[in-house]
Sequence to fold (324 residues):
Amino acid sequence: MRRAEKSGAVATTQSQPPARPMPGGLINPGMGSSGPPSPATTANSLDAGPLSGLIDQIEEIDFDPAAEAHLVDPARPKDGPLEEFRMLRTRLNHLQSLQPLHTLVVTSASPAEGKSFTATNFALVQAHLDRSFTLLCDFDFRRPIVHNLFKFDRSPGLTDYLEGKASLAQVIKRLRGTNLFLLSAGSPVVNPLELLNLREVKVLLEQLPTVFNWVVIDSPPMLFAADANLLATMTDATLLVVRLGQTTVDSLNRALQGMSRNNVIGIVANAAKRGELYSKYSYYRNYYYSDDKERKSEEKGLSEEVIEALNNQPLSSGEPTDKE
Fold:
């Protein structure tokens, strides 16, 4: 991510051809060289553009995630995973303040490395912020999972919208009481890559940032389908997920070579052991997250341990001790 911060390298929006009607009543306005709106204006853009009034038309569903979803819980701020995703949110929001960054592809080199886990939880913590409308899109038409994680119908979804069978408002759901919106993969299709090559996909990804501050895309693994490579050319940035102890250097290099390196803004290391993350910082985490009573007790215990350790130390007289 530091390389992206220094260079500001993110795919820029190209000039668009003349406007024409799109599925679901959308019209391509031709964004030109101005690019997507800044985060400061996103929340105020609901009354302008081809997606005017979209938020009010979206159906709300209950927030009832599946047990296997492994979502972070904001009611448990001491949990390590929640803090890690907040740090990721801070870094990406900082990059967003430096350059146009609203559409993000989350992918991995191979299956079972945690791309859906990362995309879902990043979208969730991003939606915790005030007025931060976040859309989680399932672009994995082969093995979609977002609808299972949040327990709602797979269709109508994205494929139904692209085929003109449903409007955009009909395929997006909003989790009641949150800023998180969901777009499922939709009905199964026999030609996923051909569907992604439709011009409507590019236009949709250009128009969604006029309503949503973040559009997070869960895509297929890079080495098993060309979908992620194609989506990377139509979005602002790509986040690559690796699984510690499983992802090989060879597969990571092949994934990076398969896309524009300038479009990869960072790599997320998944499946780190709790001890690897916090063993050296457990005292500081406990200091900041424990209440006053617990903190004073820990400080008292620490002082007693230090005093006892000092009392057991040999005098620094330079003379050898029995242990030496």
Q: What stands out?
A: The CA atoms of residues 45 and 210 lie 6 Å apart.
